[in-house]
Amino acid sequence: MGQKQLAISALLWLTHVAARAQDGIAGINEANQKVRSYFDAGTNLMYAVGAILGLIGAVKVYQKWNAGDPDTGKVAAAWFGSCVFLVVVTTVIKSFFGV
């Protein structure tokens, strides 16, 4: 009687597992749609971060310029380059994923 109950329990468990299984393609498509739905908000956030970093960089460069530091041009180029990089990366990712 013990083996019969064990066999029935195993069969019921396997049926339960098979019933809960999903199609892998459906899960991937659902994840793809969720990521694409957040993409516009993410790109807007990246643009906002770039704008804030640009303002911070402008203030830092202005302070260095007023103080007469000799490396003002290097600092300005670094801040400007980082802001341009952020905008370019956002645009490239947006075009790469076709959103």
From TrEMBL:
Q: Where are the transmembrane segments?
A: 45-63, 75-97
Give the range the annotation lists for the signal sequence. Answer: 1-21
Q: Which InterPro entries match?
A: DUF4134
Asked if the record carries the keyword Transmembrane, the reply is: yes
Pfam families hit by this protein: DUF4134
Per the record, the coiled-coil ranges are none
Keyword annotations for this protein, in alphabetical order, are:
Membrane, Signal, Transmembrane, Transmembrane helix
Q: Which domain of life is it from?
A: Bacteria
Q: What is this protein called?
A: DUF4134 domain-containing protein
State the species of origin.
Sinomicrobium weinanense
Q: What is the lineage of its organism?
A: Bacteria, Pseudomonadati, Bacteroidota, Flavobacteriia, Flavobacteriales
